[in-house]
Amino acid sequence: MAATEIYLTQSNDTAARTIGDDTLIMSTLDSTIFMLNSVGTTIWNSADGATPLSRIVHERVCEEFEVTEEQAFADAREFVDKLASHGVLLVSDNPATPKEAQ
Amino acid sequence: MQLPATEQNRDVVIEIGGFPIEVQTTSAEFERILMGRYRDYVRPGRASQFALRVEVITPGSFDPDADAEVWLEDREWRMERGDFRARWNPEERCGQVSQTANPYSIDSVLRIVHTLMLAPEGGFLLHASSAVRNGKAFLFSGVSEAGKTTMARLAPPDVALLTDEASYVRKVDGRYFAFGTPFAGELGEPGKNISAPIEAVYLLHKAPENSIQEIDPAIAVQRLLRNILFFAHEPEMVRQVFEAALAFVAAVPVRQLSFFPDQRVWELIR
Fold first, then answer.
1. Closest-approach residue (CA) in chain B for A20
2. Which residues form the domain of B185?
3. Would the N or C end of chain A have less CB density within 10 A of its end CB?
4. In A, which residues are within 8 Å of B246 by CB distance?
5. CATH code for position B181
6. Does residue B1 sit within a domain?
């Protein structure tokens, strides 16, 4: 599925709060506001810098939501790219060290 | 803060939202402008812990086309636009303004300074008209053309208007209050200088019929954030505004008001 693994970390340049199933995120860099649905919230909460996106999709998204893994990964990648373009999510080809992931 | 004694001080205390700010000037012309524009908000003799010293300058001193910018530098807020330059020290509660003798520049500076004072305590200015009915304040929020001024124009006689443009929200003793402001929109009239606990915020949506809809709290916060005026996009300020919106929605009902623009809409607002 994933040719290259990517690892996600929540940026410190955000303010975020989960309300019900949704999560509101505000970038403190450009004040952009994002509202994540339950799938987005699952990915956001899993962005620990150590878990590859493919595993997040396989173990959490596909377990919780009725969606094919292929579609889920494509949607997740698009979602990640959008948040990353605003600096809300940090994307790396390598897992964060335990210290970085704290 | 005191001006040198060599010129006659013409200080005007302008109290908005319970914050009296002493605007210090030596210009008789500017004093007249202040007394006229803020007449219902001027508090002669009122002690003030906040001061803004205004230096009235000659036209042409700044680039008139420059956009507004607000930033933090050396623990002071700096504000610049084509028609003014200003700074505000939140710790010393004082600042300076350089502008020509006109009411619009000081009006913008006051709006910015009030947002800076409100943010740390969870208050804010909201793009909204607001009014008091039966001792309760109602806010009508939306983007430009959403109907803020229309709601103000349609208000029946028993309604006291607080503003048709920028609603002043402040937490007092654990409750959210709306205060009248002199910050006017299309109506061109200052709001009544009173305050009342906020009963509800209505997000405006024009429709063929009048109705009120509950909305999801996350959507309420998102839409509120879009309408909160904050000029300083510093990270700490953004966090304060974010937290303020969350706390407000947890305490005050935020609903959608679908409305047809005639007086009947006010039958729903009680």
1. B218
2. 124-268
3. C
4. 17, 19, 24
5. 3.90.228.20
6. no
B26 token code pair: 């030596």
B202 located within any domain = yes
Residue A28 at interface with chain B, using a CB cutoff of 8 Å = yes
- Whether A24 and B226 lie within 8 Å, measured CB to CB: no
How high is the ipTM of this complex?
Answer: 0.85
Residues B134 and B242 in one domain: yes
CB pairs under 8 A between A and B: 43
Question: Which of B230, B233, B239 lies nearest to residue A15, judging by beta carbons?
Answer: B239
Using pLDDT thresholds of 50, 70 and 90, give the confidence band for residue B58: confident
DSSP β-bridge partners for residue B202: B140, B255
- B128 and B246 share a domain? yes
C-alpha–C-alpha distance, residues B144 and B227, integer Å = 10
Looking at the complex, does the CB of residue A5 fall below 8 Å from at least one CB of chain B? no
Tokens read off for A90: 């940090």
Measured CA to CA, the distance from residue A58 to residue A44 in angstroms comes to 15
Q: What is the CATH number of domain A7-86?
A: 3.90.930
Q: What are the boundaries of each domain within chain A?
A: 7-86
- B90 shares a domain with B218: no
Three-class DSSP category at B67? coil
pLDDT at B5: 52
What's the mean per-residue pLDDT of chain B?
93
> Is residue B52 within 8 Å of residue B19, measured between CB atoms?
no
